[in-house]
Amino acid sequence: MERPTYVFSDGAAYERLMGRWSRRAGAEFLEWLGPARDLDWIDVGCGNGAFTAEVMRRSSPRTVLGVDPSDGQIAYAKSRDDAVGARFEIGDAMDLPARAAAFDVATMALVLAFVPDPQKGAAELARVLRPGGIAAAYMWALPGGAPIAPLWQAMAEIGVPVALPPSAHWIEPERMSALWTGAGLRRVEATTLRIDVEFEGVADYWEIVTAPGGPRGKEFAEMAPDAKGRLRARLDEILVPGADGSVRFRCRAHAVKGVA
Q1: CA gap 230, 34 in Å, rounded
Q2: From 3.40.50.11240, 1.10.10.10, 3.30.70.270, 3.40.50.150, which CATH number describes the 11-141+165-196+251-259 domain?
């Protein structure tokens, strides 16, 4: 199976950057989704299992299968104490390792922009659902709505190219709705979630967003020292700490759901 190149490879690094916000956004998403209990779920692009654990805690599923292309993420997911009972497998969102009509709920949490062909991804969600099952996804509103947005802003302002995920242009409510409708799903709805995030300070934020395990980690490792210095200086100007030194800002995520 071909592995996407734009992935997090380090589950612990992802947990520091996105895990806590994935859980917070996931809680808002699940409240909006309103699924019944005792259902069979597939969590596509499960990463390190942060959203899977939220499903386990909030939705009382009968079974959960988490699928992700990253060996490192899957290894971390399997080690989670808060996801005991879920199964995790290496797998491709565009070719799921599951038979047709096997699940009641199929989700993509903070994944859709990373799927090389979102139309195939949406079609796969629909394929593995039983009649009446729910397909749903949420993704940071890129580029300005994600926790990494201040870093991207700083990069753009000092002239460092910003490479968005391959399918970031699909992350608008209207386009996400069109994907779901095109996959044959009905009663399609979209919304925007708002999530407040906070960090201990600018240094904490910098350490997390430049972590080697992220999708741009190699680029940061190879960046010239003067470029890193200019980037950090601009980030210091963009992120203004509060009286306690912490950094807080609001993120946005677009979400979509439909019925098979």
Answers
A1: 46
A2: 3.40.50.150
